[in-house]
Amino acid sequence: MQKVKFIVSMAIRLAKNVVIVCIVYAIIFPILLLMRPFKKIIIANYQSSRIGGCHTLNYLLIRKMLHDTDPGTLHILASEKRICNYRYHNFVKRYFLVLHWRFRVIFLAGCSSDFGRKIGFVPEIPYWYLYRQVYRAKNECPFSFSVDEEVEGKEKLRQMGITEDMKRDVSTDWSYHDFRDCKIENYFSAARHIMERGGKTVRVGVVVDDPLGSGAPAGLVDYPSLFRDEFMDLYLMAKNRFFLGNTSGPFAVSVMFNCPVALANWIPPNHLPLGPKSLYIPKLIWDNNKNRYLSFQEMHDLGLFTEVMAGYGGYYKERGIIPIENSGEDIFLLCREMIENLEGEVRPGHYHESQIQFKRRFQSHIEDGEHAGNISAYFLEKYQSLM
Questions:
Q1: Model pTM?
Q2: Residues 141-150: contacts with CB within 8 Å, 24+ apart?
Q3: pLDDT level of residue 152 (50, 70, 90 thresholds)
């Protein structure tokens, strides 16, 4: 009986999809084609299941669509079934017509056919192309909060003990992602440094193992354990002075709102954090066979700077190498360098030259990499023996 119910259910689902496809090709596509001479239409993929990380493409695509098209353009986004954050989802809907996930087949069908692309479907585009277009054309944020949202955000900041006259220097994120995992304790020195300079630190994230313990700096706000809600996930990322985090999704929201990011435990280094003011420090790689850290050249020879598969945990296990997370001192120096940059403190010229040389030597294949973030100069100085 259960097998019969399953077969019937699958048959009904298949029939529904066939009907939708027929409607798309027989009715919706012709209507969009007829509208084409009178109204420009752009239909693009909207990855709504995760708020950041690998979906940085969303934000770049949205910004490009807003900046580079005529005011009369009709923007349509095809949503996924899962919505990770409904406040962010509603924020996006202010600027675009968002298709319900059941009609995502329209996008998939459009991108798979020449007919669909003629209408205005935008297939998956390398995010470096979009990044180049955004930062070369108009590097400003097209998004804003409503008056009511600003009131809501400021009130919730007040509840966290953050007032308008404070420097919201950093939102910090420690989130789990296999070999990207890192310990919260290694960020404490950086948090103390920020607060000593008059700033306020906020721990953010969704997946956190435990509340902050007794070893946490006094004044560090434990947002995910005590205050988290969907709106503040967006507001905090938009309003911080800079974001201190790791290779994890939330930093992409700060990039969307033109907030610089300082990312520790960056792995793999085959891509760069967006934004010319951004900084990062990579995880170092320990080789079990050689019983030492690999040099940057050896990391390059293994493909860590070039191969896509370096973004998967199995890549490291197969080669007998282990990503080692950054120490508290490393992250402190990263934080210190970001603050010095934002406050215009000048360092000797060789610091900047070392960053340029590193990018030329190991990341020259990244198109328009000069417009992206740099490795920390203090990190290169500390680990110059690995150069």
A1: 0.79
A2: 141/63, 141/256, 141/257, 141/258, 142/63, 142/66, 142/67, 142/95, 143/91, 143/95, 143/238, 143/256, 143/257, 145/235, 145/238, 149/231, 149/235
A3: very high
